[in-house]
Specification:
- Strand 2, helix 4 and strand 3 form a beta-alpha-beta unit.
- Strands 2-3-4-1-5 form a 5-stranded parallel beta sheet.
- It is elongated and about 75 Å long.
- It has 2 domains: 155 residues, Rossmann fold; 113 residues, Zinc Finger, Delta Prime, domain 3 (Up-down Bundle).
- The protein is of the alpha/beta class.
- Helix 9 runs antiparallel to helix 13 and helix 10 packs antiparallel against helix 12.
Length: 287
């Protein structure tokens, strides 16, 4: 399978490789992800794969691929609710189902893509789609994009292949840098360094995110001590693992979570910073 110009996680790639090995795309696929752009990217990839005339699908070179990528292919249809409606109507779905039995115009396959299927497909509309999923026309594929597949009917889920895209957490640069400075302050022998770093929590809009990242970094230290993979900052994780025991790291993670809870209670940020600094120091120096 050709992943050039596409950026998917390893788990998704392995699943797609299996599809390619079988040389048959499932007739109904649900793509679940919090990242709509990633969902659309995967839907575009699969639609290109379905119509591609090249050897290493999707080749990205043939006319079919170009049209699919530009959303200009006559046999690839992105379904949207009519007019100002937020959901698909039963009549609209019936028209789509009738159209699915008409032979493709240009390619050897037809693809129908439904965005926000978990919110736009009512139970009645899903039931109208059900019979088609049970006995689909040859070379017709349905791709349903959603954030939460559990909102879809169990009968729909049972007739589709579910692809989950792992979402990467994206953090504000200021929050990430502030969190790293707090961790460096925890590791420093000088209390002033920690107190100075913790003062960044005075920005209430960023404080919760900063502490969330502090937790991730501490967990990286714990992961290294446990033989697991880091997920945020391997370099800092290694430093933490050489300076602290598992029990200390766990206590700091619990402390950080407690501080996050206090922020939601509208505690005085200056008092919180002073308390947090003292508690981090206490855990760092205790035997």
């Amino acid at each position: 399978m050709n992943f050039n110009d596409f950026n998917f996680d390893e788990s998704t790639k392995q699943t797609l490789q299996t599809i390619d090995t079988l040389n048959r795309m499932p007739h109904a696929i649900i793509i679940e992800s919090k990242d709509k752009e990633k969902s659309l990217e995967l839907a575009s990839f699969l639609s290109m794969w379905a119509v591609c005339t090249g050897k290493n699908k999707p080749c990205g070179i043939c006319e079919q691929c170009h049209k699919a990528k530009e959303k200009a292919h006559a046999d690839i249809k992105y379904a949207y609710p009519e007019k100002k409606s937020k959901t698909y109507s039963i009549d609209q779905m019936r028209d789509i189902l009738k159209d699915s039995f008409i032979r493709p115009n240009e390619a050897n396959a037809k693809v129908y893509i439904f965005e926000e299927a978990d919110n736009r497909l009512s139970a009645v509309v899903q039931n109208s789609l059900l019979k088609l999923l049970e006995e689909p026309p040859q070379n017709v594929f349905f791709i349903l994009l959603c954030e939460n597949s559990k909102k879809l009917l169990i009968t729909i889920l049972s007739r589709c292949v579910l692809l989950r895209i792992k979402s990467e957490q994206k953090f504000d640069k200021f929050a990430a840098q502030s969190a790293k400075e707090i961790v460096h302050g925890i590791l420093s022998a000088r209390e002033y360094e920690l107190l100075k770093a913790i003062n960044t929590l005075c920005d209430k809009e960023k404080s919760d995110e900063i502490l969330s990242i502090v937790k991730l970094i501490l967990r990286d230290g714990l992961a290294i001590l446990s033989g697991a993979d880091c997920i945020f900052d391997e370099e800092l994780g290694k430093i933490i693992s050489t300076h602290m025991t598992k029990s200390k790291i766990l206590e700091m993670i619990e402390l950080t979570e407690a501080a996050k809870s206090k922020i939601t209670q509208n505690i005085n940020i200056n008092l919180l910073a002073t308390w947090l600094c003292g508690e981090y120091r206490r855990i760092s120096w205790q035997r």
